[in-house]
């Protein structure tokens, strides 16, 4: 509590300096969030040359519970996120370990690694659309020339196959960033710890398990949280490759929110779906911020 | 007076130029009192773009602008973005366009559009198929003018049919199935389609709607409730399932756009497809087609109730917020002028809507399918557009996809589609 007039003036000046940034943040962050929540509690229709809004007592959220497509989108999203996080983090860790090896420190490898991440999202989706094409796709041509398949396959025709390929494509795109993130974490592990471990007779696996992993716990946690947030936002590959099909097999929550809002013009209901995604993302963001906080060291008495 | 290039002169000149550019209209010619700028929102070529945007009738367009004291600015986007861009603009209350392209969305955007068809010249209206106003009419008012006769017809590879000893295109469902089976050979398929996108005109639901009418069914009863859970509705879907088993390219379920499927036919990897007239021109271009001179078209094979199709409903409409409704209407009349319509057909491949131009010998010689599409237009071609067309076609198309994948029988899928459509209509209120 400010006890002197100097402290009060200092605090007031601080508030004045912070105010412009706070107003901008409120305008560009808080207002859309509040507006979106209000929309999600209304029936919003485009009639009479304008938008009419009518309070519907959280009817949109109640409708979500009985909506089979939404339930499917939730299940798909959960599977997609778990699969993506598990694959991206484990592959990225392996890639980071390789790049941290003296042989892998050649800059060429890092440039190659970054390419999938650097490709624009829609271009990436179109690229894979052609790779997977059932008539001209290079994947079919390659597998057939290797004698692994007899006939060209329609990779995006079956629900699980389509879902699996979307997952694979997003993993392919996501690995580079997470690998670089983990590589930075790896490079912060003091080499003295490895020396001490080897002197104590630890093998490579034991050094990895008891030195590398515990030291990288923070980086790994951040990678998991960030990748989970990103997996909730996947859109382009679904829009370009499958449009949520076949038979809604690849509809994720984010794509459903778009479809309901812009294709069906059911703006209130679309906002309800978007708010569910927002709530999930917000929780993950809090986790991320918590993980990023510097830890206080325990002082033993 | 001599002009020396000095620093002072250069600075004075630059200041004068800057001041002049700040004046209203900058360096442009002085505006006449009656000058108007019309904003047009539409699709980018190769979709049906208007003159000045697509490369045809440029001189006529300039002449029209000069004669009418109007400038025209185009805001064109790729076709798949049109609906969502318009919806967003309307919802935000900032749709800045006078003339807008619409495709099956007239009932949905009705309250933002101006009915103007009654003011069109009689000779123009009389020169268009009567049914061409059905998809742009809602609640008894007509909001648009169709500018291209775009109906689904059957396209086929003559060479493939000849090789299989099939002289003429299939005339009915039985022949359609038999042809598909017989043409599935030598590493190619008898039929190809784009079943990957369930919704919208040209999506999976649309194909089923064409079969539905061929089977003698309809989408809605007089009171607007769904009326397709009938023998005809199930038969239409069963026909699609049978066609799938007879030899439809299995990749069809993964093709989310018409171009994906079109490419398969143009590469000679399939023998037949249901497609829109736009296909004719690219099929004759050796740069992208391996079937130059081999393509032919016919009316869609008849079901129990005869042949039937759906139309693309490509229409020009006028926004309610237009500042000059009369000039906007005149611009649409210009797009529908016989000279422009003929150039549209010959230069872009999009058929005219005017009957006189469709019957023009030059048009028929350059585009033999004009006659086929005219024949197809003699039969029913309802696209069943409603204010919730996207949502209903998404629901129906998804159920059709489930049946095509064997997840449901035709009867189960149609029953579920009807239940979903009823719920959507009930929400409309």
Automatic annotation (TrEMBL), chain A:
Query: Could you tell me which species this protein originates from?
Result: Rhodobium gokarnense
Q: Which family does it belong to?
A: Belongs to the binding-protein-dependent transport system permease family.
Residue ranges of the TM segments: 12-34, 78-99, 111-131, 162-186, 219-241, 267-291
Q: Superkingdom, according to UniProt?
A: Bacteria
Instruction: Tell me, in one coarse class, where this protein mainly resides.
Output: membrane
Topology versus the membrane: Multi-pass membrane protein
Spell out the Pfam families in the cross-references. Answer: BPD_transp_1
Q: Where in the cell is it found?
A: Cell membrane
The protein, known as: ABC-type sugar transport system permease subunit
Task: Domain (ABC transmembrane type-1): give its ranges.
Answer: 74-288
Cite the entry's keywords alphabetically.
Cell membrane, Membrane, Sugar transport, Transmembrane, Transmembrane helix, Transport
The organism's lineage is: Bacteria, Pseudomonadati, Pseudomonadota, Alphaproteobacteria, Hyphomicrobiales
UniProtKB/TrEMBL annotation, chain B:
Protein location: Periplasm
What is any Pfam family matched here? SBP_bac_8
Q: Which first-to-last residue range defines the signal peptide? A: 1-33
Domain of life of the source: Bacteria
For this UniProt record, give its keywords in alphabetical order, as a comma-separated list.
Periplasm, Signal, Sugar transport, Transport
In terms of Gene3D superfamilies, this protein maps to: Periplasmic binding protein-like II (3.40.190.10)
**What PROSITE patterns does the entry give?**
TAT (PS51318)
Q: Which family does it belong to?
A: Belongs to the bacterial solute-binding protein 1 family.
This chain's protein is named Multiple sugar transport system substrate-binding protein
